[in-house]
Design brief:
Elements: E1 2-3, E2 8-11, H1 26-33, E3 46-51, E4 59-60, E5 64-72, E6 79-89, E7 94-96, E8 104-107, E9 112-120, E10 125-136, E11 142-154, E12 157-165, E13 171-179, E14 185-194, E15 198-202, E16 205-208, E17 211-214, E18 221-222, E19 227-236, H2 238-241, H3 244-247, E20 252-262, E21 266-271, E22 275-276, E23 285-291, E24 295-297, E25 302-310, E26 316-322, E27 328-331, E28 336-341, E29 346-355, E30 359-363, E31 366-370, E32 375-379, E33 383-388
Family: Belongs to the TRAPPC13 family.
Protein name: Trafficking protein particle complex subunit 13
Subunit structure: Part of the multisubunit TRAPP (transport protein particle) complex.
Amino acid sequence: VMRLTKPTLFTNIPVTCEERDLPGNLFNQLMKDDPSTVKGAETLMLGEMLTLPQNFGNIFLGETFSSYISVHNDSNQVVKDILVKADLQTSSQRLNLSASSAAVAELKPDCCIDDVIHHEVKEIGTHILVCAVSYTTQTGEKMYFRKFFKFQVLKPLDVKTKFYNAETDEVFLEAQIQNITTSPMFMEKVSLEPSMMYNVAELNTVDTAGESESTFGARTYLQPMDTRQYLYCLKPKQEFAEKAGVIKGVTVIGKLDIVWKTNLGERGRLQTSQLQRMAPGYGDVRLSLETIPDTVNLEEPFDITCKITNCSERTMDLVLEMCNTNSIHWCGVSGRQLGKLHPSSSLHLALTLLSSVQGLQSVSGLRLTDTFLKRTYEYDDIAQVCVVSSEIKQS
């Protein structure tokens, strides 16, 4: 059994010395005459020649394990009914990798039966390739033997994820991918496959002169132990965005699909399990801001738009109260009826307020009371606005 891998570039160790040393120019001349060195750059360790693998090498999760199996008849007799079977034993299952399950009628002396097997590695840990051969001798005796080849499957990448729940039901996913192998990787694709309730937008490119360019540059190589951060924005689909009670409880976001290449184009692929976030707790009533200005003038009214959503499973009869603070003053009638709000339904409110203090001020003082249960919901520090003097012209 021999593992089939791509060849590698030949490397040598350059040996040089100064001209006034005893060897003189001997070492430099030997490197120039060496066919494995690069002409004009003999001191580089990496040459232009390819070399066949000298050992089993490393096999990483997500790569394709390929092996060449050869059964050779070393005797001087013809054997019959040869059956070669190759199984791969992992910690959880046993897989049959044989290309054909049919027996070969006969095998003459000094002849062989060849087979090439392929398997995409999907588990880490110890793997055992079990090669079993059964045959019948000329005397009719049935013979059987097995050979075992053990190898380890290593983890190529370390993936960490962070979730950020926005007030607008958007979810931001930050994925940190680290190359924990000993060789560089070419990151061919890193994408997020969202769950059925979300649409995804990748935030890993920038527009330059009308063209989309990767934030990581033209060459997306990931050196050993280097980490790269990918950012995605998930927005609820329209049919689910209107159902506040449904979307707030969604924990399954999607899964990452990562494709890379190593060495001379060897391809690997990993797909994470379903990523899950902690569902945000909105309580019975959720209040969010739809529109609010960034900068306002001192002692001049400005408008904001609020969205009130019933996240409970019962109908509410809401009353809106507005309480002034030291810096923020509400304009309008407090204690007005908003009417009945059914489960998972929303309503929009246009409110007016002004600030009597300059600087960054917090919008606070909204109170919602459910007259059915006599329960009051308080909303403070909803957002911040920058209050400037009216004499300062806003750009």
